[in-house]
Specification:
This protein is of the alpha/beta class. It folds into 2 domains: about 40 residues, no CATH class; about 190 residues, Rossmann fold, CATH 3.40.50.150. It contains 7 helices and 11 strands.
Length: about 240
């Protein structure tokens, strides 16, 4: 039996209080929603996931060949990661999240896509700070294979390049930070970024300093609360040769 509202987990983390809740939405005929909150701030809802899915699909569409190694920064409810695993060309997927409780939700089956991720042998969930790893001198993201370069890094952690969950993340959104990330990509590798905000011309110009000319895709999706559409942005950039 699913209650109308249930808090499935609540934990204290270095970034604040994080909670996972499940509720029936009466405005949507009782549809069951999963929501993540950090303090009083909503991080994610299972109702709005189209752009998270498109982050993987659009990035993978830019890659050729098979046996692709992919990194996802930010696990959330797992939609970006699961969309990446839809491709049989993906050989390995490393998903990095700074919050152990979020990883535990998936391993415990508390979220709808958890079992799908943990049962796929291609997928590895890593508890680490994505930004520390991206800015480090190591070659790669996988602690078991620190020298591995990857074909794509897909990032969905901050609200946007200007609106960060943690002010310390800001160092990544610089030419130096993006160059460090680029050094961890294979030739012609792809960097993809989800943003809640409209395309940012200054950030696009910054991407173009480090990568080949970048793309900003506006992903629209129905918003049943407003009766109209909402949108997110997916940035895509290819490593310079």
């Amino acid at each position: 039996m699913i209650l109308e509202f249930e808090e499935l987990d609540y934990q204290i983390t270095p970034l604040g209080e994080i909670s996972l809740r499940r509720r029936a939405e009466p405005r949507l005929n009782g549809e069951i929603l999963y929501e993540v909150k950090l303090g009083d701030e909503f991080l994610m809802s299972s109702l709005f996931t189209e752009a998270e899915v498109q982050l993987s699909r659009l990035a993978l569409a830019m890659l050729e060949g098979i046996e692709l190694d992919i990194v996802v920064g930010g696990l959330g409810l797992g939609y970006t990661a699961v969309a990446a695993l839809e491709s049989q060309s993906v050989r390995s997927l490393v998903v990095i999240d700074v919050m152990q409780p979020v990883i535990d939700w998936h391993r415990r089956g508390l979220v709808p896509l958890g079992n799908e991720l943990v049962s796929d042998p291609r997928c590895k969930l890593v508890h680490a700070n994505f930004f520390d790893t991206a800015l480090s001198n190591s070659s790669g993201f996988d602690p078991e294979d620190p020298n591995q370069l990857v074909h794509a890094v897909l990032l969905d952690i901050d609200h946007s390049p200007r609106h960060w969950l943690n002010p310390e993340n800001s160092a990544f959104y610089s030419a130096q930070g993006l160059q460090s990330l680029s050094s961890k990509l294979r030739p012609d590798g792809i960097f993809g970024l989800w943003s809640n905000d409209p395309p940012d011309k200054e950030f696009i110009a910054l991407l173009d300093i480090v990568f080949q000319p970048s793309e900003a895709h506006i992903v629209t999706f129905p918003n049943p609360y407003s009766g109209g559409e909402s949108s997110n942005t997916v940035y895509l950039a290819r490593k310079r040769k």
